[in-house]
Design a protein that fits this description.
InterPro entries: AB_hydrolase_fold (IPR029058). The protein is an alpha/beta fold. It has a single domain, classed as 3-Layer(aba) Sandwich (Rossmann fold). The protein is built from 7 helices and 10 strands. The strands form 2 sheets. An 8-stranded mixed beta sheet has the order 1-2-4-3-5-6-9-10, sandwiched between helices. It has a two-stranded antiparallel sheet with strand order 7-8. The chain is globular, with a radius of gyration of 17 Å.
Length: about 260
Amino acid sequence: MKDWLLAAAIGLASSLAVAQPAQVVELSTRPAVKLRLLVQAPAGGPRAATLVLLMGGNGQLGIYPNGSLQRDGHFLARVRGELTARGHVAVLVDAPSDRRDLGGDFRESAEHAADLGAVIAHTRKAFGQPVWLVGHSRGTHSAVTAAARLAGEAAPDGIVLAAAILESSRFGSATARPLQESGVEALRVPVLVLHHAQDACAVSPPAKLPELQARLPSPSRIIPYDGGNARGAFCEVQAFHSFNGIEQRVVEDLSDYVTRPR
């Protein structure tokens, strides 16, 4: 069995053992726009921050009405059970109803921030816990956009940047700026950066981490990783870019930090 399939199976088994049945939520976010969420909560209720999980790539996760996923091999999708086992509500976010995906420059838009603000406000009210945005790869742009644009109950309590975009790159018709040039120094929330030292994805070169670190607000932390397994394309689900084979370590560090930012 492929490593990511094994991790996904373990995560699913964990979530079934300690979680409530996953709920599909259709959330109205903007006029005539809905956002589909898959919400997984611990069986005994949440004991830690709610984590809103933002996919990389084109952002189209494919949440079906029965709660299954078209793209369940994604790093954040496959660790959701482990996050739930640690007391977090895990919220997977799909593309909005007015778009097929999050391509182009949509991740940097006010509309995208409004969608995420609606998710944050909804989950904050529903579960009564702090809400953190967790972005992976291109999803790190989404997390930074929301943290920069949102305020009040719609703003995140902190953000996690896993395999952050550190190199200018083309995504469809748009050119995405590296995060160290996106105004992160103006953020007013804690930032946790999780990055594999051997990440070979062209948009996430580890050599650029010092540039990002120099611009992060306080409190913030960068945690580097090694080990695991890498197969196939450098930016895909079996690569170091997706923390293949070290998911448990990453989940533990993430959970510990959002509970006690430092």
